[in-house]
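User: My instructor asked us to take a sequence, write out its structure as C-alpha cells, and then describe one feature of it. I'm not sure where to start. Here is the sequence I was given:
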Amino acid sequence: MRHVISILVDNEPGVLARIAGLFTARGFNIESLCVAETEKKSLSRLTLVTSGDDWIIEQIIKRFENMINVIKVDDFKQSESLQRELLIARITPTSKTRSEVLRVADIFRAKVVDVGTKSYALEITGSKDKLEAFVEILRPLGLKEINRTGLIALKREKN
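Assistant: Let's start with the prediction itself. The C-alpha cells for your sequence are:
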C-alpha cells in the first residue's frame, strides 16, 4: 500500500541522512522525497512517499517518533490531505505540433515558463495522475525531458 508520510524535523545537518538510513536498513524504497524549510527557519518538513505493508510502515513511523530532531510524524491518507507535485517539461515541437503543445498546456493549466528558438519549457502542478496524463499526451508532440519535485502534502483543515 502507498503511504505519504510527513515528518516535521529540526532544520539541522544529518537529520535527512538518519531518516533515509532507517529506510535503507529495512530494505524499503523511497519513491519520492521532498524536503524544505517551513514557515519557521528552524524547522523543515520532509514529505516521503513509500509503499509497504501497513504494519511495517507503522513500525517505521514509531521509530521516527522516537528519533532526536523529529517533532511530528503523520501518515496521510489522500482524503485527509492536499497533495501536489511540480513538473517542468521541455518540449521540442515541430512546426505542425507547436499549436497542439500550447493547446495541451492550456487544457492542463500549465504555464509556459521559457521559450527558445527550438523548444518550450512548461510548468505544471497537480496530482501524480494529472502529471502522468500530461506527460503521456506530450510524448508524441516532442517531449524532450522532464524534472519533477516529488510529492508535497499538508493535512486538510477539518471543518
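For the description part of your assignment, you could build on this observation: Strands lie at 2-10, 30-37, 43-51, 70-76, 81-91, 111-115, 120-126, 143-148, 152-155. Try explaining in your own words what that tells you about the chain.
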